[in-house]
Amino acid sequence: MSSGMRAEEIVPLQIDRMACTGHGVCAQILPRNLTLDAHGYPILLDALVDPDDGDTAIRMCPARALYWKGS
Ligand code: SF4
């Protein structure tokens, strides 16, 4: 998270593990929030993601497996 972010700008990102196909794009876009396991599937380290970066990851996920909590 960038140091200039306000609390209301932070929203939790979720992963649909049934939909995820392990492309790993999300971990490239959100390296501080996600890492990949030995099979290329994401492990969420910190769900409080910068909204702009999270929107990019959601848009770029080829399996449409990322979403904002509550959306
Ligand atoms: S980009 Fe999408 S499909 Fe690929 S690992 Fe991340 S959540 Fe899974």
What do these coordinates show?
With 71 residues, the protein is α+β, with helices and mostly antiparallel strands. It has a single domain (7-68), classed as Alpha-Beta Plaits (2-Layer Sandwich). Helices cover 21% and strands 23% of the residues. It is built from 2 helices and 5 strands; from the N terminus they run E-H-E-E-E-H-E. It has helices at 25-29, 51-60, and strands at 11-15, 34-36, 42-44, 48-49, 66-68. The strands form 2 sheets. A 3-stranded antiparallel sheet has the order 4-1-5. A two-stranded antiparallel sheet has the order 2-3. A hairpin with a 5-residue loop joins strand 2 (34-36) and strand 3. The longest helix is centred in the last third of the chain and has 10 residues, at 51-60. The chain starts with 10 loop residues before the first strand and ends with a strand. Iron/sulfur cluster (SF4) binds at residues 15, 20-26, 42, 61-63, 65-66.
